[in-house]
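Ticket #4471: structure export looks truncated?
Reporter: QA, pipeline team
Priority: medium

Steps to reproduce: submit the single chain below to the structure queue and open the exported record.
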Amino acid sequence: MKPERRPARPHFSSGPCAKRPGWSLQALEKALLGRSHRSKPGLAKINEVVARSRAVLGIPQDWQVAIVPASDTGAVEMAMWSMLGARGVDMLAWENFGKAWAADAQKYLKLADLRVIEAPYGSLPDLAKVDCDRDVVFTWNGTTSGVRVPDGAWIKPDRKGLMIADATSAAFAMELPWDKLDVVTWSWQKVLGGEAAHGMLALSPRAVARLESFTPPRPLPKIFRLTSGGRLSTGTFAGETLNTPSMLCVEDALDGLRWAESVGGLKGLIARTSANAAALDAWVQKTPWAGYLAEEAHYRSPTSVCVKITDPNFQTLDAKTQQDQVKRFAALLEAEGVALDIAGHRDAPASLRIWCGATVETSDIQALTPWLDWAWGETQRKKAAA
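Actual output as written to the record:
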């Protein structure tokens, strides 16, 4: 039997993620459309995004923060192309995006002194192997594997290298130890449910010092250039964005930030995320055919929760057949209008990926789980009938 109760909002995609509760197009009525982003009111809105982001996340006042093009990907690549090569580099990779950054460091930056410390999907690399006197690039939260670093205890406070953290599905949902980090990137489209295409780049004083003392041995595209005449391009970090931002997206980002403040700021966002993850966990713990892709609870993501199918018969199938079955499973739920876009990432092992970030309501997670059981039952019945 189909469950009677349905999620009020079926948006469980891991990016772009659900809009904040109660969102409508009316939230964008004050968007500064048809005006230059360099006009006085345009600059004011851009700088308001930076100021509210700094306040909610608790970014230190001596850090530089900017809006940059090409979402989180652009922000990470900008940092890598501008800063890496001054000393040896450790790349941590345990999911799709970390592997992509490592591949770029190898194939395109062609770094002479590069170590890639890897782990398979579902595991975390041995953080004891990381040398913090080298530059380190890593994803704080592996969106495609459901694995995150649990904290910053493994990072040396007296490090010589830079810690470059892709925090796109962690920022606004997890505590970030700013004293242990030097470059932090994220995008609007994740935890706050903002519109895509814009990234955020935050630089510590140590990162700024690197930019001003190191000349990369490679040509930099214009949108990657963070210095001018050997000094930080201060205009970039004062609202003068490197390219034209969408003021509609800027207004949406402001709406998300105001909502974040209304639910208690970072603590409130973390609490909402934790409640969602706990509701899903209550179902996983009692479901014989489901488990987590992340093997250990202490490094399991509370935002991009990756659920694998543990049924023994399913585990005997080849990888392509498993992926095809997961796609059919997700399609059943989408056809019912109860869960959209929850099939795992195409490069990850066959799994479901359910976003539990702060913009999702816990009641919708609770309403979703009986439908997961229904979809599993349907796939098993169709398989038996065939």
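Status: closed, not a bug. The export was complete when the record was re-opened. Leaving a note from the reviewer for reference: The chain has two domains: 25-260, 265-385.
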